[in-house]
Design brief:
The chain is an alpha/beta fold. The chain is 41% helix and 16% strand. The chain is built from ten helices and eleven strands. Bound molecules: NADPH dihydro-nicotinamide-adenine-dinucleotide phosphate (NDP). It catalyses: (6R)-5,10-methylene-5,6,7,8-tetrahydrofolate + NADP(+) = (6R)-5,10-methenyltetrahydrofolate + NADPH; (6R)-5,10-methenyltetrahydrofolate + H2O = (6R)-10-formyltetrahydrofolate + H(+).
Length: 292
């Protein structure tokens, strides 16, 4: 029986945010520029409103400027595109984030494609995805970046390790696979059409759940001693009528099998905003002369 360590993403993210705040102080003193993050929220989705509020709060706490633009759910695609172009041209804005999902009548790909790749702190623009794929400097999606930081902190070098990423979305699975490849892992990307998923997962020294299905990855699918990163955030009903958050991995079953695992909540989740702040500072450094 393996003793399973908990990977405390909340504590790691707090430390990362403190280091970013120190760097921001130094950057402001050197350049007289305050890094600015603009967040665009279209519509009234309650979960998105909470995310945007938290992003704004943590941006200000890190010493950066938070610029929030709220548009009505009825805003037209042209209005959203015009706002993005205005932010592209604004020298006080170094990072632009358009909160997803957008209302159905707006073409999210067209909006993402309009963001200046140099200000694309979510890393979703095809230019940044392409730069990551060919090994050039890129702004990298925040959640995958957070996973890599946690892995390197816990394992040191990842070179030569077998990594299995379950999920192939453009925002988590694919960029995370690219980042693991950059760290010299041997990477398998699994998805809904993968044959014998349990067997594929059992190969993994690093197992990533990025599926969005509550506790789908079972304890018996985990190689003893493997490091498990659970990206999933799923709200499930409790017997008392309330709800609770669970990941994509059956957390209790993983105890005694995994070498280490991220909890949900408190694992990958807090890393996402910390990495957004990191990307905003990186973008500001690249845009401001002498900022690097
Ligand atoms: P998507 O729905 O975009 O992608 C899910 C992926 O899982 C798809 O590639 C899909 O395969 C695969 N999949 C679905 N069912 C199965 C199955 N039965 N077996 C194997 N693979 C399967 O989700 P996201 O990538 O956006 O998000 C994944 C999870 O991560 C969600 O729970 C989300 O809430 C969470 N998340 C957490 C974040 C954080 O900050 N911690 C940030 C972003 C997401 P296929 O392509 O074949 O359909």
């Amino acid at each position: 029986m393996v003793e399973t360590r908990l990977i405390d993403g909340k504590a790691f993210a707090e430390g990362l945010r403190a280091r970013i705040a120190d760097e921001v102080t130094e950057f402001k003193a050197r350049t007289a520029v305050t890094p600015g993050l603009a967040v665009v929220l279209v519509g009234e989705d309650p979960a998105s409103a909470v995310y945007v509020r938290n992003k704004g709060k943590q941006t200000v706490e890190a010493g950066m400027a938070s610029i929030e633009h709220k548009l009505a759910a009825s805003a037209s695609q042209d209005e959203v595109l015009a706002l993005v172009r205005q932010l592209n041209a604004d020298p006080a804005v170094h990072g632009i984030l358009v909160q997803l999902p957008l209302p159905a009548h707006i073409d999210a790909q067209a909006v993402l494609a309009t963001i200046d790749p140099a200000k694309d702190v979510d890393g979703f623009h095809v230019v940044n995805a392409g730069r990551l794929a060919v090994g050039l400097d890129a702004l990298v999606p925040c959640t995958p970046l957070g996973c890599i930081l946690l892995l390197k902190h816990n394992l040191g070098s990842l070179a030569g390790l077998e990594a299995v990423v379950v999920g192939r979305s453009n925002i988590v699975g694919k960029p995370l696979a690219q980042l693991l490849l950059r760290e010299d892992c041997t990477v398998t990307i699994a998805h809904s059409r993968t044959r014998d998923l349990p067997e594929v997962c059992r190969r993994a020294d690093i197992l990533i759940g990025a599926v969005g299905r509550p506790e789908m990855i079972r304890g018996a699918w985990i190689k003893p001693g493997a490091t498990v990163i659970d990206v999933g955030i799923n709200r499930v009903a409790k017997p008392d009528g309330g709800t609770r958050l669970v990941g994509d991995v059956a957390f209790e079953e993983a105890q005694g099998v995994a070498g280490a695992i991220t909890p949900v909540p408190g694992g990958v989740g807090p890393m996402t905003i910390a990495c957004l702040l990191q990307n905003t500072l990186t973008a500001a450094k690249r845009q401001v002369a002498g900022g690097a």
